[in-house]
Design brief:
Layout (H helix, E strand, L loop, with lengths): L1 H11 L4 E4 L7 E8 L4 E7 L5 E5 L1 H14 L6 E4 L6 E4 L5 H10 L1
Antiparallel strand pairs: 1-2, 2-3, 3-4, 5-6
Length: 107
């Protein structure tokens, strides 16, 4: 549910800018931007609700991924990866932001 997802985003990042896509053929249907002292990130949710595209500071992306893992039932596997799938990590229940950052630096 896009409304619930938008609400969760706003609860976590109150200053977030969110927009939805009206074009029925658009690949991404929800877009957001988070800009603050600690964050610089853009994101989009795919029409299938199964893909999120993120762009920005890696530490912000890693934190977002861990937050997102907390919303999704553990029955669903989540993979955090770069655009070439060179770097990828399965997001498990106990995965931390620091682990993602360390794994990324090790690649």
């Amino acid at each position: 549910d896009l409304n619930e997802y938008s609400k969760q985003l706003k609860n976590r990042w109150p200053d977030i800018e969110i927009s939805s896509e009206d074009d029925p053929n658009a690949y991404y249907i929800l877009h957001w931007r988070i800009r603050s002292e600690n964050y610089d990130m853009d994101g989009s949710l795919n029409r299938t609700l199964q893909v999120i595209r993120l762009h920005g500071d890696f530490s912000a992306l890693a934190e977002f991924a861990i937050w997102y893992r907390s919303l999704i039932p553990l029955d669903y596997k989540l993979i955090f990866y770069d655009d070439l799938y060179y770097f990828h990590v399965y997001l498990e229940k106990g995965t931390t932001t620091d682990e993602l950052i360390q794994n990324y630096k090790a690649e």
